[in-house]
Prior knowledge:
Layout: E1 7-18, E2 21-32, E3 36-40, H1 47-54, E4 59-67, E5 70-71, H2 77-80, E6 85-88, H3 100-106, H4 115-128, H5 130-134, H6 145-158, E7 163-167, H7 175-190, E8 195-199, H8 202-208, E9 211-216, E10 219-224, H9 226-232, H10 234-241
Parallel strand pairs: 3-8, 3-9, 6-7, 7-8
Antiparallel strand pairs: 1-2, 1-4, 4-5, 9-10
Helix pairs in contact: 3-6, 4-6, 6-7
Amino acid sequence: MSEQPAPVLEIESLSAGYGRFDVVRDVALTVGKGEAVALLGPNGAGKTTVLHAIMGLVRQRRGLIRVGGTDVSALPPHRIARGLAAIAPEGRRLFLDQSVEDNLVLGALHLRRDRARVERLLGSVYEIFPVLKAYRHRLSSFLSGGEQQMVAIGRMLMSDPQVMLLDEPSVALSPVAVDIVVKAMLELRRRGASLLLVEQRIDVATRVCDRLYVMTHGEIVDKLTPDMVRSGGMSILNKYLG
Length: 242
């Protein structure tokens, strides 16, 4: 039996939400070093709230979140973003009036005094996404949706985090762009990255991930492997994703 990789991300008994209301309740999951793990579920299931809780962007009422052994539960977002966790958010949220390279370098703001490290990280992004190197001086507003998603993922990589969070990276992309993004995530895995992926497309999740957690109504209701999903076919899709 193969050993489980050491956890990079550990969430225990997490309840978090907005205002007076819990959106997620008693969530527990782990991401091992070099693993890719998916959170699947319908809209409103609480998947994005889990990511935002990791980044310190929503109020956490109960539970524990550790990244690389560091308890981030009480840390402010800017501390978490300094090499612990980073997110490629849904909708990308780029500075559209800035160049591709300007957007990328913003991800390494906390590393700005280590110019050599920033240049190495920038080179790594350009290796994964060669088109971004060709477009590095182009305004981000002139990019396609798939190219903007590449920039959002690249900006996340520039912070050199211990765990990478991707929120619906395939949403509103063409089939060709989805394939490029999937290949980029597989390349990140090859390089030893640890990923937590929020997705509605189960085909994307099964191509990229080792394990799948299924959420509905703010709770994790099942844990699956890609092989289990493939053998279960449409019954699993219909049961959880509607």
